[in-house]
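seq as requested:
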Amino acid sequence: MPANKFLCIMADDFGMHPAINEGIVKAFSDGILTDTNLMAPTPAIQEALALTKSVGIPVGLHATFTCDWDIYSWKPLTAAKSFVAPDGRMKDSFEAAWKDASEEEALAELYAQYRLVRSAGIQLTHVGHHMWYDKAGKFNRVMNTLITKENLPYRGSPMVPEFPFALQYAWQSDFYLSDPAVVTLSAARDSLKKNLAALTPGYHIWVTHPAIDHESLDRLCTVNSPARNWARTYRALDLALLLDPETADWIHSHGIQIVPVAKCPVLDVREHETIL
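struct tokens:
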């Protein structure tokens, strides 16, 4: 019987850190990862661009307007004075970043990130966000400009009617396993099984954050940082799941076919139709 459930397996944060780059490439080459997202302003982006071309992994743009670590940091590619901290680094939350942000500066920064990737000769499958977006709609207006002009679908989650994007993937659901209660491999496996069992017919996306389990990730943030588990724990667990042959077996046993994002349907909000 043909599959009627489809799963894209996406890795976020390509370019953030060498251990993350290595984990994403390993998950794609040796595991079941299908796609990833490039973070243009981050410290290891040049390595990620080179790996994208050498490995052939499909990539989108992980539009980056924040920096969520209290030690490790990056600055925007442009001046972008309206949404950076006094020391010049990006702010640590979307609320802070977009409170006084100039949409003109934000669009210039977004296009600088887009052009950095395109200038390396890399085609993009989609555009998405790092962390979240502001409730006032500034982020959405800026993103819609890029989406419309460059004809790039927004990766996103299932569509939020209050904030539609011009082109976006038509997901039935999205999920990720980074939860305070999921800090062991057995708990991560149980969480994944529950998510897979709950999938309905249609297209779904599993968002992952793989990295090799390396001590350098402990130096992204202080021990008491709210983001601490995101530095190393969640990333090592995601990589372990993506490399585990049993994970692929669980997916197939639930009648789910793994597909890259480029094979997923796109909803054109402007025309109110789905593009296959």
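The first helix runs from residue 18 to 30.
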